[in-house]
Amino acid sequence: MKLCLVLILKLILCSSTGTKPKLTLNEYFDFTNYPSLSLSPNGQHLLIQSKFPSWNSNSYENSLWFYNIETKKKQLITRALSESLKPQWSPSGNWIAFLLDHNSIPSSDKYSKVNEYIYLYSVISNEWLPIDIGKETPLALTWSNDDFSLYFVTFASMSPKEDANLQKVEWKDVIQYRLSKSNEGSSIHRIDIETNNQTSSTKRYLIKNVPFLITELLFVPFEEKLVLMSFSTVFAKMDVIEIYSLNLKNVSTLSRLTSNDLWERELRLSNDNRHVLFLAFGRESSQGKLNSIQQRLYSLDLTNGLVERLATDFDGNIAGYMTKPDGGVYILGQLGTETQIYTQQSPTHKLIYHQGWNGTYERISLSSQRNGPIAFIYSSFERPKEVYLMDNIDQIQSAQVLTSENKLFTQRDLPKVKAYQWKNNEDQRTIEGILHYPPGKFQSKNLPLIVLIHGGPGPASANSFTADWYTWAPLAASEGWLVLEPNYRGSFGYGDQFHNEVFLQPLSRPGRDILLGVDQLVNDGIADPNRLAIGGYSYGGFLTNWLITQTRRFNAALSGAGAVEYVSAWGTVDISTFIPSLFGGYPWEVPQNYLNESPIYHLSQVRTPTHIITGENDVQVDSSQSFILERGLHYLGIPVQLLVFPNEGHELNKNPWHGKMKVREELKWLHKYGNGSSTIMKD
């Protein structure tokens, strides 16, 4: 009762003074994200996927909404949508194909939880058609050129059945690691759908088994082909991710269409059905040398196999795209901290910039109709992420907002934010970061500073608003901290050369970028030199672990999923090409690079109290790295705490309580040590 009265008095006070209340921890984590959205082919309806924490069930609620553009009404299809595949419209727009998360389906549901289903939702009748596909979960899905058949992929072992049975007898439960992985494959199936006035029925056919996993699938009406994206859980070389085509008239013909060191993704067909467009990042050969590149957009000509790059005159990062009905393409291009909308009619045409709001545009979606509506997701420092709709590209700044799930954030006193630049005096490189000021203290001086370092190293901190455990600068600022998010060397959005400069000096060079930014904030009188803290997750954790060995100026450190010893990190990471590309070779080829840049060999220099978190099942940065750091600091007498989140991988996306507790405990650590009152020896 007393708490309710306090809250009411606070609201009355804020209302009478015209001020907004500050964000709280609980409010910050009640944020809705939008993992996907898709306009129907006829442009009459919009599918919106939303993801929201379900605190009582220790999970996330993934919902699929059906929005009628004419009536402006939103209808719920399901609250148990699977995240493994995006919902897909049929060619006519009369059906929607999707999967359900079995763990979210009530036990009273009439469909078996033992088998997997592809669900078809009828836009006309609002009825569901469940298609039983057996026990294997679909890896990819695509419609044919009509509503009467679709293709899907499941996991398949490439071992002959007799060999598999012999393995079970001889080896029992022993895993032959690389051998078992080499037998990974996929089965491609077709489902034919027969409908009449009363009932619908389906028939299933096996099309082909292929000796690799498939993560994306496209049907190409031109010459009746399937275009596939390959993958493998054994990531020894980048050539495990390539694009193939399968001739459906002669399924023995499987053709490889790409051969490179790039990570391709987001396959889409051009309007003429003769080109496959895709995003790719990684390493590209130039003048006989492999250089790392930001994400780019390419077009593959299915008639002659030629691959052509689009947006060659754009120096930033291509964050997303969508093909246009007239043959052109919409491009979401990131320059610095801004991601804006561009168009290009063909690879030979220049890129056209369309003036929008400052901030970040995501997941643009179109119908197949010319001059049809355009949907997108938008956010900025001041405006939380929501879904928008506009009639045409010239109406970006007057687009209509369709959702209001994150309205609460607009009713809070959010931190004021600005870009901040400094130079690395060793090579005169300009480095940019984002400064979040505590509410009511914009442009104030002598503020306590927390440096929050993004992961990647590619994905940069941006002018956007997503409230979660990874991007929590607004919450830290609301707790009284000046927050610097540095876009250090290696970040996307500042040109390929800037991105390339992280390699061979993967910690020391970006580390210097960050420390020089702190120096300038102190020299400008903005940051209090006696109240400094640092933290980051993933690559941000890598850099946090490195920087506490290089300086004793930080009173507190927050290390999330960070490595400390890169030989063992290479041996346990799932993508085994990542660390050698950073260090310039394998451990036996450039041992000095690994020795020089591994924090474990400099750990005796650390005096900073360090809070560490890791996911129990993290395969991107093995949890052993966090245990090594904790043990080392404990032996050195440095205050340290390690939190291990059960059943979580690198993304911490299983239980929303884990992300919330991560930030809650990190804030407590900052409160305890970050203000400089601790008695830890600094020299």
Q: Keywords, please?
A:
36 strands, Rossmann fold, about 20% helix, single chain, four-stranded antiparallel sheet, about 675 residues, alpha+beta, eight-stranded mixed sheet
CATH superfamily of the domain at 413-674: Alpha/Beta hydrolase fold, catalytic domain
SSE-based structural type: alpha+beta
| Model regions low in confidence, pLDDT < 50 over at least 5 residues | none
Helices, by number, come to 13
Main sheet properties: 8 strands, mixed
CATH C-level class of the domain at 413-674: Alpha Beta
How far apart the termini lie comes to 51 Å
User: How much beta, percentage-wise?
Assistant: 35-45%
Molecular structure report:
This is Peptidase S9 prolyl oligopeptidase catalytic domain-containing protein. Residues 475-673 form the Peptidase S9 prolyl oligopeptidase catalytic domain. The structure is a single chain. 18% of the residues lie in helices and 37% in strands. The model has no long low-confidence stretch (mean pLDDT 92). The two termini are 51 Å apart. It has 683 residues and is α+β, with helices and mostly antiparallel strands. A hairpin with a 6-residue loop joins strand 26 (374-379) and strand 27. The strands form eight sheets. Strands 29-30-32-31-33-34-35-36 form an eight-stranded mixed β-sheet, with helices on both faces. Strands 1-2-3-4 form a four-stranded antiparallel β-sheet, with no helix packed on it. A four-stranded antiparallel β-sheet has the order 5-6-7-8, with no helix packed on it.
